[in-house]
Amino acid sequence: MGQDQTKQQIEKGLQLYQSNQTEKALHVWMKVLEKSADLVGRFRVLGCLVTAHSEMGRYKEMLKFAVVQIDTARELEDADLLLESYLNLARSNEKLCEFHKTVSYCKTCLGLPGTRAGAQLGGQVSLSMGNAFLGLSLFQKALESFEKALRYAHNNDDAMLECRVCCSLGSFYAQVKDYEKALFFPCKAAELVNDYGKGWSLKYRAMSQYHMAVAYRLLGHLGSAMECCEESMKIALQHGDRPLQALCLLCFADIHRSRGDLELSQLKLHCLSESIYRSKGLQRELRAHVVRFHECVEETELYCGLCGESIGERNSRLQALPCSHIFHLRCLQNNGTRSCPNCRRSSVKPGFV
Predict the structure, then answer these.
(1) Distance between CA 183 and CA 166 in Å, rounded?
(2) TPR repeat positions in this chain (predicted)?
(3) Per-residue model confidence (pLDDT) at position 128
C-alpha cells in the first residue's frame, strides 16, 4: 500500500468513525497497519487507533498501540512524533490508573529537545500530568498543572483543550469539596461546547454534562443533576463509551440515594423475606412478599419489555437503548426491529450496560 493510498484509507476510517461506524473504522485502520509500508502513515493510523480505543474504554488496547507508535517514531527519528507518542503512552497509563508512570512519561515529553511541546502539545501534557496528580491525591501539584494547561489553552486559543481542562477542574474541586467551583468549571466547558463544538466529538458534551451532574448532586440540585446525567448517558450509549456509562450509573445511584428513593431497597427486602418464609414453609407470608416483590418490579420497570421476565433474576446480558429502556439482548436480537419496542424511538446505535 503506497503513501497516497494510505492517506485515503486513513481518511476513509476517519469519516466512518465520525459517522459513528466505529467497528468499520477500526477494520479499515487495521488493514492499513497490516499492509502499508509508509512509516508516517503507520504512525498516523496508530494515533487514530489509540484515540478510538481510548473513547471506547479499551485502555489495554490503547496502551498496546501507543507502545507500537513509540517504536515507529523512533524508527522515523522524528522528535515531534516521539513527543506525540510519549503523550499517548502517558494518557494510556493515566486511563489505567498507573499515575506514577503517567507523570514519568509526561516529564519525558517536556524534556524532549527541539519539539513543539511549548506550543501545541505542552498544554495536553500538563493536563495529563494534572489528572495523574489528582489520581495520586497530590492536590497542589494537580492544581498547578491544570492552571498551566489552562494558560496554554488561552495563549493558543485552544477551546477544545480549555474544555477538557475545565472538566478536570470540576473533578478537582468536587474532591476538595468546593462545590460552587465544581459546578462553575463544567458549566464553562458546556458553554465552550455550545460556542465552538459543532465539529467536535459528542464526547466533549457528554463529559461536561457528567461533571455538571456530579456538581449539581453535591449541591443538592437533584433535578438538574438527573437531567445532566441523562444527557451524558444518552451520548455514552450512542457511542458505546462503557467507562462513561459506568460513571453515569454511579451518579444515578448517588442521585437516588440523595433523594431517599427506597424502591430498590424494598425490592431487596421482599426478595430476602421470600427466601426466609419459603424455607420455613409459611405460605401466607411467602405469598404476600412474592406479590409485593412483583409490584416493586413493575413500579421500578425492572423487567424486559419483550419477554416480560424481571431483570436480574438470571445472569442474562442486557442492552440499553438511547431512550433508556432496557431489554434482554437475546430478546432484541430476536425482535428484528430498529426501534424501541416500548416507545418506538429509533434505537440508532445501542450501548451495553
Answers:
(1) 10
(2) 123-156
(3) 96
Alpha helices in the chain (DSSP H): 3-18, 22-35, 39-55, 59-76, 79-95, 99-111, 122-135, 139-155, 159-175, 179-196, 203-219, 222-239, 242-259, 263-280, 283-299, 329-335
Q: Distance between CA 92 and CA 147 in Å, rounded?
A: 22
Phi, psi of 328 (to 5 degrees): -65, 140
What pLDDT score was predicted for residue 54?
A: 87
- List own/partner pairs for 154-163 with CB under 8 A and 24 or more apart: 156/119, 156/120, 156/123, 158/123, 159/192, 159/195, 159/196, 159/197, 160/196, 160/197, 160/200, 160/204, 161/123, 161/124, 161/127, 162/189, 162/192, 163/189, 163/192, 163/193, 163/197, 163/204, 163/207, 163/208
pLDDT of residue 167: 96
**Residue 34 CB neighbour total at 10 angstroms:** 8
Residue 298 and residue 288: Cα distance in Å, rounded? 16
So what's the pLDDT on residue 338? 59
Kind of pairing, strands 351-352 and 326-328?
A: unpaired
Query: What sign results for the dihedral spanned by CA atoms 181, 242, 204, 119?
Result: positive
DSSP notation for 113-174:
TTSSIIIIIHHHHHHHHHHHHHHTT-HHHHHHHHHHHHHHHHHTT-HHHHHHHHHHHHHHHH
Residue 294's contacts (CB-CB under 8 Å, 6 or more residues apart) are 310
What digits encode the pLDDT tens for the residues 39-52? 988 999 999 999 88
- With CA atoms as reference, report the closest residue to 326 among 265, 260, 249, 254: 249
Give Cα 238 to chain centroid, integer Å: 11
pTM for the model: 0.72
What pLDDT was estimated at residue 214?
A: 96
Chunked mean pLDDT (size 10), the chain, 353 residues: 81 84 88 87 92 86 94 89 92 94 92 66 92 96 96 92 96 95 96 89 91 95 92 84 84 80 58 68 78 66 67 59 66 68 52 36
Residue in the block written with cell 438511547: 322
